[in-house]
Amino acid sequence: MNPRKDSADSEQGARGAGARPESRLAMVRRARRINRVLAETYPYAHPELDFENPFQLLVATVLSAQTTDLRVNQTTPRLFAAYPTPEDLAVADPAALEELIRPTGFFRSKAKALLGIATALRDDHGGEVPDDLDALVALPGVGRKTAHVVLGNAFGHPGITVDTHFQRLVRRWRWTEETDPVKIEHAVAEIFPKKDWTMLSHRVIFHGRRICHSRRPACGACPVAPLCPAYGEGETDPEKAKALLKYEKGGKPGQRLKPPPDYPGKPAEPLP
Questions:
Q1: How far apart are CA 250 and CA 22, in angstroms?
Q2: What is the spatial distance between Cα 231 and Cα 214, in angstroms, rounded to a whole number?
Q3: What percent of the chain has pLDDT over 70?
Q4: Tens of pLDDT along 42-87?
Q5: Confidence (pTM)
Q6: Which of 33, 110, 128, 196 has its CA 20 to 30 A from that of 170?
Q7: Mean pLDDT computed over every residue of the chain
Q8: Would you place residue 18 in the very low, low, confident or very high pLDDT band (cuts 50, 70, 90)?
Q9: Which candidate, 43, 83, 37, 87, places its Cα nearest to that of 60?
């Protein structure tokens, strides 16, 4: 595949030298084309945290701050074995909890947040994770990003997850110039139908982790290169770019120990 091959109007609309400024309508059309390409590239896109219920997803998402989903997935089996319910977690010994989640970093602040979340779920929500945005963000340590992860993947409520990968890519693609996560969320929400929000988030994050890296994007191996205004910021040689691919695109294990059945990559290894 030659990622640079596409129609002339796409080339000009994305980054043509001396091209007229892109209209709002042209940007929206280009953004939706990018989403379609990502859907073809990652038909198996999914949340990369292992979970079996809303409580586990909420806990895992809180733990994922400032670390990789892989490290969280390697940590949570022991955590959930020790504290399978909010009621169990609410009465956990703080020192024991900190030790269990130590591999994820910032374990003291995360332990405090988890204890607060578990106590609130037990006392205010009958031990159940609420499926409401306002109720979720009212929990200790839960912001809009975490809430949308839970709502979209545990309850099926559409939402846009603005993590660091999402922020980087939507700005590279010039869907928005906003830098505040909430403003980015609202700007992107105006481009796509609500039904697309959750899967769009997965696809963009997948692409950011696998191909469109922060420091050295693999432009020469990128399927959306013809639609990308930032083409050329990374490696454009196809063979050299291919060597930069990560996870299943690079023939390496993914981040989940228990990936979905349709995932084409290798499961991650547990902690030793």
A1: 34
A2: 13
A3: 93
A4: 999 999 999 999 999 999 999 999 999 999 999 999 999 999 999 9
A5: 0.92
A6: 110
A7: 94
A8: low
A9: 83
Return the structure tokens found at 182: 């909430």
Residue of 50, 69, 110, 163 with catalytic role: 163
Percent of the chain residues topping a pLDDT of 90 = 92
Q: What is the pLDDT of residues 211-242, one digit of tens each?
A: 999 999 999 999 999 999 999 999 999 999 99
Q: Write down how long the chain is.
A: 272
d(CA 72, CA 65): 9
Helix (H) or strand (E) holding 207: helix 197-210
* 9 is an active site residue: no
Catalytic residue from among 50, 69, 145, 249: 145
The Cα–Cα gap between 65 and 107 comes to: 10
The count of other CB atoms within 10 Å of the CB of residue 254 is 23
User: Between the CA of residue 145 and those of 45, 58, 132, 149, what are the distances in Å?
Assistant: 18, 11, 13, 6
Is residue 110 scored above 70 in pLDDT?
yes
Alpha carbons 258 and 25: distance in angstroms, whole number: 41
Residue 112 is a catalytic residue: no
